[in-house]
Structures are given as structure tokens and as C-alpha cells.
Amino acid sequence: MKTSSKFSKISEKVIVKAQKGNHDALNTIIDTYSSLVYFLVSKQIKDISEVENCTQEVLGRIVNKIKLYEMDKVKFNTWIYNLTKNCIKNYIRDYKINNDTVEINSEEVYNYGVDDIIQDDRLSDLERYIGHDYYEILLLRHGYNYKFHEISAIKGIHVSKIKRMFKEAEAKVEEYKELINEEKS
To answer: Is the dihedral of CA 120, 123, 126, 130 positive or negative?
Structure first.
């Protein structure tokens, strides 16, 4: 079941207003992207209080850096994603955080729209099984409905390779589901 991405609903008008300091526009952006930021942070940092601290740092950075965003150079979703990933790396480095991945329970998986990939609490096992890059491509495509060219821009990988990796990842997910079903039998 594919759902439409709420992240594509931020209009250029809202972004321009936010860049001019409009608090309502900034709040709209923060409200729209806070769950994505939290999810991305929680994939890299285990400790829940550190996840919350890092998420706040990322959201603060979005507010502080919004004036630097250039619409004609990169899509806003890509800018948010890259800013988040860079903030996470800096946070882990600066605070010497253990950056092991975190186990995510089923309810969180459903909330983030990736239940099409796997429907139990083995999401981190799935990531280990298929590999981080493949998992991230699946998450961006299925979970956030990014187009292949958007994923290509985010990952810095040619779009044809992204498409190939996506197909390979889906095949690996099917293998993983079969293994899970065999374990349950």
C-alpha cells in the first residue's frame, strides 16, 4: 500500500515565508519534518534522550539555516535529508555517542509507513541482512515515496544504479521474509 508523501506538500511560498522569518511558516516546516528527522536520528543513535537531543539540534539547525536554502539548486526534501544526516554525524562525533542502530518496534514501523517492507519488529535485522545502503534506498522509496532521481541526489549515486539497487533490495527483502516464515514454521 503506497501512501502519498506529506513531505512534498511544503509549498515554495511557505519556504520563502520561513526564509523571511515568518514563525507560522517555520512551524509548518518543523511540524512537517520533525517525524522524519526523529526517525532518521533514531536509526543512528540508541539512547532515547540522545535521540531527542539530536533531533532538537537538527530542527534548530533547520530554523537557523533556512535562509541559506537555495530552491534553484536542490529540492527542499533533499536539503532537509542532507542537513539531518550531517547533523547526526556531527552530533555523534561531538558527543562521542554510540551509533549502533536501534531496534524499532512494529508500531513505530507502521507510523513511518514502511510496513510494506516488513511487518514485524525485525527491522534492524532486515537492515543488517540487506545492507545499510539498500535498506536506506528502500526506506526512501517505500517509506517516504521519494522518486529515484531524488534518491540519486541524496545518495550521490547515479539513478540507474539506484534503480538496480532498489530491485536487488526488494529481492533480498523477499528472501528475508522467506527466512522469517521458515523460522516461524
So the answer is: positive
